[in-house]
Write a structure and sequence with these properties.
The chain has about 210 residues and is mainly alpha-helical. The protein is built from 9 helices and no strands.
Length: about 210
C-alpha cells in the first residue's frame, strides 16, 4: 500500500486507519510506519502524519463505539459465530473490559485484536462515553506518535546500519513478534479464570448394607 500512500498521501492514510479502527482487518499500523519513513525522506510532514493518524483512529473508534452501543448485541448474535466470536466468547471479552476498564482502552491501540474490538465492545457494554473518549484519545496519541515518530527518527539510521545486509531476517522477526502478540492477546481475552470454573460438590456417600 506504500505506492497508494505516496500517491494519495494523508487522505489515504486517514481512510485506512479509520476503517481499521472500526474493526476491519487493514494494515493501519504498518501504513503509519511507512508514512513516518516517507516523512523522514521529506515526502510527508511528520506532524501532519501524526495528527491525521490520531484523528482517523478517534473517528474510527467512536464509530465502532456508536455501532456497538446501538447494534452490538444483535450483530454478535447474528454474525459472531461466523467470525469465531459467538456470544460465549464475546461475553469473555466483555468480562475483560469490565474487570480492567480504562486500562484496556488505554493499551488497546497497541495490541492487535484489541485494537479492532476496542470501540465496538466498549459501546456494546455501554461504557461511559466521556471516559472512553478520554482514554482512547490518549492511547491514539501515544500510538500514532510512537509508530510514526519512531519511524521518522530512526528510519534513516536503520537503513544505513543494515545497508548491504539482507532484510529477510527482520521480516521473520517481525512476523514472530506479531504471532506472539496475537497468541498472547487471544489467551488474555478467552482464557477461563479459575473463579469461573464450577466448584466440584462433595461426592455422595456410598450406601452401606446393613
Amino acid at each position: 500500500m506504500t505506492e497508494y500512500l505516496s500517491q494519495y498521501g494523508y487522505a489515504f492514510l486517514f481512510v485506512v486507519v479509520l476503517f481499521e479502527s472500526t474493526g476491519l482487518p487493514l494494515p493501519g499500523e504498518s501504513l503509519i510506519v511507512a508514512a513516518g519513513l516517507l516523512s523522514g525522506q521529506g515526502d510527508l510532514n511528520i506532524l501532519l502524519v501524526i495528527a491525521v493518524a490520531w484523528a482517523a483512529s478517534i473517528v474510527g473508534d467512536n464509530t465502532g463505539y456508536l455501532v456497538g452501543r446501538r447494534f452490538g448485541r444483535k450483530i454478535v448474535v447474528r454474525w459472531g459465530e461466523h467470525f469465531g466470536l459467538g456470544e460465549k466468547r464475546f461475553a469473555m471479552v466483555e468480562e475483560r473490559f469490565q474487570n480492567y476498564g480504562f486500562v484496556v482502552v488505554l493499551i488497546a491501540r497497541f495490541v492487535i485484536i484489541l485494537r479492532q474490538l476496542n470501540g465496538f465492545v466498549a459501546g456494546t457494554m455501554h461504557m461511559n462515553w466521556a471516559v472512553f473518549f478520554l482514554y482512547n484519545a490518549i492511547s491514539a496519541a501515544l500510538w500514532a506518535g510512537a509508530y510514526a515518530g519512531g519511524a521518522y527518527l530512526f528510519g534513516a539510521a536503520f537503513k544505513h546500519f543494515f545497508k548491504g545486509y539482507p532484510t529477510w531476517p527482520l521480516y521473520v522477526a517481525a512476523g514472530i513478534i506479531c504471532a506472539i502478540g496475537i497468541f498472547g492477546t487471544y489467551k488474555f481475552l478467552f482464557r477461563k479464570d479459575d473463579d469461573d470454573e464450577p466448584e466440584a460438590g462433595p461426592k455422595p456417600a456410598r450406601e452401606t448394607r446393613g
